[in-house]
Amino acid sequence: MREQRDQHPAGPRTGQHEEARAERLARRFAEEFGHAPDGVWRAPGRVNLIGEHTDYNDGFVLPFAIDRAAMVAVRVRRAGEAGHDVVDLASTYAPHGAGLSRARFAAGGLAPGSVPGWGAYPAGVVHVLAGADGADGAAVPGFELLLDSTVPVGAGLSSSHAVEVATVVALNDLLGRGLDRPAMARLTQRAENEFVGAPTGIMDQSASLMGRAGAALFLDCRTLEAEAVPLPLAEHGLAVLVVDTGVAHSHADGGYAARRASCERGAAALGVASLRDVPADADLGVLDDGTARRVRHVLTENRRVLETVERLRAGDVRGIGRLLAASHASMRDDYEISCPELDLAVEAATAAGAVGARMTGGGFGGSAIALVPAEGADRIAGTVTEAFLRSGHRAPDAFVVVPGEGAQRVR
Ligand code: GLA
Fold first, then answer.
1. pLDDT digit string (tens) for 226-249?
2. Is 283 a catalytic residue?
């Protein structure tokens, strides 16, 4: 039952909590800009259940959108309005004070590197939407945007993609661009690659755009064919616990790009366009040891995604635990993107009774996820925290996430 998601069918309505949040954001927007916004949109962060570093190899991923989201109130400047071309951004996330963090630039003629800090995410979307990267586009007028986010920054839960996705869904609606979800995913990926400068794949945006409440998103990253695979955690007495190690990661740093380059080298040496196309009986012995291990991770990880989907379709949620554990071992040993804190989070959670656990996202820091008995989530979080403190690490931030609905207009 795979479907091409051209339209995002109306999902469950956002909760009252989100509507109240949108209301507050619209009020704050009016205080800041002196008039009401045209609307408010939300875009969630994500965790990846399984399928890591497979997206840029045209492979399979199984992330889900979480119940934490970026929210933007936006008003497009009217024709003839003073400063018609000016984009004014403000964010409630100001690390060192209660004020707003602001950015301002002209919508036309943006160049990579020209907007520092978080403003680069909305700016990247404008840059790509306007076709400034060489693709077809129509001029984007100036606008005012106020951002508020409950996705923790730097935790590897795609807080930056949530900002990009919230911006693109808002502008797509307000400018009547008529882009479908896969097109918006590809567009925000270009914003990230070409403007922000991070050579990341398509998974995070897709999860934020196409996630469905109560389900994981089984995505073929070559075609962007997507299927919502039910993830009935509560019915099985389970929960997904996130352990944010607090170790900073950045996909603009060298490790991520180096892994990507190894995969490209491996594919070239094996004579295929991408690792997706490596036959099951391929001889990895023709590769140097390092490249062979990188390639082996991608091949085995793709298989683990397919097996996880099969288990979930069969209603065996607990059965995915050993696949999560195997995925982590593969990232630790073959892909070499874990770190002591991520390994400790996985080991401590598993020893305390998690059904399975693994690092999630790009690696080199960020968060781990653990599939845990729901009634044991607090206890397991406490045990993991104690293990961190005993090992001389800073206490992690541990919290339960629920598979939530993808990006949508809230008001
Ligand atoms: C980051 C990137 C994704 C993906 C993951 C690893 O989250 O943004 O595109 O490559 O790392 O699976």
1. 999 999 999 999 999 999 999 987
2. no
> Which tokens is 380 given?
């397991």
| The model's pTM | 0.94
Range 371-382 average pLDDT = 98
Is residue 229 within 8 A of residue 216, CB to CB? The reply is yes
Q: How many residues does the chain have?
A: 411
Other C-beta atoms within 10 Å of 147: how many?
25
Please say whether the beta carbons of 57 and 276 come within 8 A: yes
Secondary-structure breakdown of the chain: helix, strand, coil percentages, each rounded to the nearest 5: 40, 20, 35
**234-401 placed in CATH 3.30.70.890:** yes
Using the predicted structure, report yes or no on whether residue 107 has a pLDDT greater than 80: yes
Architecture of domain 12-231: 2-Layer Sandwich (3.30)
366-378 burial, b if ≥16 CB within 10 A, otherwise e? bbbbbbbbeebbe
- The neighbour count for residue 206, using CB atoms within 10 Å, is 31
The residues spanned by each domain of the chain are: 12-231, 234-401
Confidence of residue 4 (pLDDT cuts 50, 70, 90): very low
User: Looking at 204, 283, 316, 397, which residue is catalytic?
Assistant: 204
Using most ligand atoms within 8 A of CB, pick from 47, 53, 209, 275 the residue to mutate for ligand 1: 53
Any residues with CB less than 8 A from the CB of 221 and at least 6 apart, and which?
54, 55, 56, 57, 58, 59, 60, 61, 201, 202, 203, 206
Question: From the CB of 203, is ligand 1 less than 6 Å away?
Answer: yes
pLDDT of residue 314: 98
For residue 157 and ligand 1, the question of a CB distance below 6 A is answered with no
